[in-house]
Amino acid sequence: xxxxxxxxxxxxxxxxxxxxxxxxxxxxxxxxxxxxxxxxxxxxxxxxxxxxxxxxxxxxxxxxxxxxxxxxxxxxxxxxxxxxxxxxxxxxxxxxxxxxxxxxxxxxxxxxxxxxxxxxxxxxxxxxxxxxxxxxxxxxxxxxxxxxxxxxxxxxxxxxxxxxxxxxxxxxxxxxxxxxxxxxxxxxxxxxxxxxxxxxxxxxxxxxxxxxxxxxxxxxxxxxxxxxxxxxxxxxxxxxxxxxxxxxxxxxxxxxxxxxxxxxxxxxxxxxxxxxxxxxxxxxxxxxxxxxxxxxxxxxxxxxxxxxxxxxxxxxxxxxxxxxxxxxxxxxxxxxxxxxxxxxxxxxxxxxxxxxxxxxxxxxxxxxxxxxxxxxxxxxxxxxxxxxxxxxxxxxxxxxxxxxxxxxxxxxxxxxxxxxxxxxxxxxxxxxxxxxxxxxxxxxxxxxxxxx
Length: 452
Ligand SMILES: [Zn+2]
What we know:
It comes from Exiguobacterium sibiricum (strain DSM 17290 / CCUG 55495 / CIP 109462 / JCM 13490 / 255-15). This protein has helices spanning 5-9, 13-31, 34-46, 53-71, 73-81, 102-107, 109-112, 138-153, 203-213, 222-234, 255-265, 365-371, 405-418, and strands at 120-122, 134-136, 163-167, 182-185, 190-194, 217-220, 245-248, 272-273, 282-284, 290-292, 297-301, 306-311, 319-331, 343-349, 354-356, 362-364, 379-386, 391-398, 424-429, 444-446. Helix 3 runs parallel beside helix 8, helix 4 crosses helix 5 and helix 10 crosses helix 11. By secondary structure, the protein is α/β, with parallel strands linked by helices. The chain has three domains: 2-31 and 156-269, Rossmann fold (3-Layer(aba) Sandwich), CATH 3.40.50; 51-136 and 278-348, ANL, N-terminal domain (Rossmann fold); 354-446, GMP Synthetase, Chain A, domain 3, CATH 3.30.300. The protein has 13 helices and 20 strands. The chain starts with a helix and ends in a 6-residue tail after the last strand. It is globular, with a radius of gyration of 23 Å. The model is unreliable at 125-129 (pLDDT under 50). The chain binds zinc ion.
């Protein structure tokens, strides 16, 4: 969109809708081509057969490793050094290949890249701004889209159905006077709602527009959904739309937030994990279990809970045993839905979302998100900021109708205890949690220098 941005923002809204649709058509061709069609069909047909997930993974792994050896100077050298002979005979032999750390991917970026055309650039990086370039081929993208659409299809959603998406993109120019914070992408019948303009003054307008559009599915950034749902509930504004399913992306939600969205938007949430760095997709089935889409790759879990991803559809920047920075717990459970992929018990933390204690201990999102539950309804949102080894700043948005002074004291004691008395805690009441440039609202803002 970059090149066209100056034209877009100088156009009237009706023209912006047309430009959105034109851009949507360009993406359509890129994303829903023959490779997409073929994979989606395969996945749908597979439901009727018993499949041997491990045999299929091994075959796909060998094909991918051979590609890495042929086209990426980094892997060529690495396999030679460590005497890796292809094809591997078992999945276990994958452990012979050394781990790819972020540091290696950053410093040897050009060597890791495969010598093929991979025009799609993945956005990665995180809060410190040290971004890492990851490239994809068009085919890689189509495979990802096929798996995402297959996931939605298992929950009754097909492409072309009315879709509302909460996006971090800026859609309204700063000079725009009309309170219209959504644009229509007719190419796939999708209404985009920018989360950058959601605030207590505009939230009711978002609800009105959702009611008018009556989406069959809702997806995108949950922080936007949470703000709108909370506003509807607080002021008793009816949501008359009745989607079949809601698919949040990219951020963690607390159990309470999930419940809130499901209640106010009248539909079940099905969660997914798909990092922008190209990890294979993990998605919830109709029984609420999280399955690895094993056709896309392999996830190993290290002792400390960090995951290593090997992602078969990263032909631009091949990822083999990449320590992506996220954490999961695997499960031995099987699931009655019949999906052959391994079950993931939980996704425990994404990236740098943790508080670092002085003794080296880390406290992850899951634990922190639970704290506010002890203060029913009188705290709307919180954010933990760590920019110092000794001190945590907690911003919170009190519900002015029921928040009392003693709540702040209680909060202080609960946090002191959680941090084992190692950290100073500063509490600050704010009217809103500031948004990031991306439009997201973070639960934890980790500003200490990245070490790994
Ligand atoms: Zn299942």
